[in-house]
C-alpha cells in the first residue's frame, strides 16, 4: 500500500516545502535577484544600493530578526569595499554609546549581585539615617564618579545604590524592637537566644502607660543607632 508521501507529486512537495520554509528560500533568492546591481556603474554607489535593497526586503518580509538585519552593513560594507570596518562600526557604536552601554552593564551587575544593598548598609552605618547626611553623601559619591565618566553613566551606576538605600530606610526595624520590648514588659522570653527577662510590670500600670513607655524606648533606641 502506497503511503501519502509516495502519492504526493513533486509540485505538491515543493508547495509544502515553500509553505514552511519560505523564509529560508527567500534569504537565498533575494541576494541573487539584486546581484546585477553589483555590475552597474558607478560601482561604489550601486554596491551601496545593493545593500540597501537587500536590507529593505529582509526588513519588510522579516526573514531574519530585525536586529540582525540592521547589522548587515557591518559585514557587507567592508566586504564590498564601500566603507572600511572602522568607519562602519563607528556609525553603530561611537565611544559615547559604548561608555553608556558599559555603565548600564555595570549597573545591572551591581543590582544582580546585591552589591547596591551592601553599599547602602555601609552608607547608612557611616553617615546615619539623617536625611541631609544621606543627601550629601549621595551627592558626593555621584560627583566623584562623574569626574571620570559621563553624567548619564554615573546616574545609571548610582540608581541601584540609591534604590538599595531607600529600601533599607523603608524597612521598619522599630516593629521588631517594639515586639522585643513588649516581651520584656510582659515577662516572656526576650529575642536574645537563651535570655529570659526577670522584670514584670506592676499590676497598677495601665496598658496605655506601657505602650507609651515602649514607644519612647523604641524611639530612643532608633536615635542611638
UniProtKB/TrEMBL annotation:
InterPro entries, sorted: SLC13A/DASS
GO molecular function, one term: citrate transmembrane transporter activity
Keyword Secreted: no
Assigned keywords, A-Z: Membrane, Transmembrane, Transmembrane helix
Domain of life according to the entry: Eukaryota
Similarity section: Belongs to the SLC13A/DASS transporter (TC 2.A.47) family. NADC subfamily.
Protein name as annotated: Protein I'm not dead yet
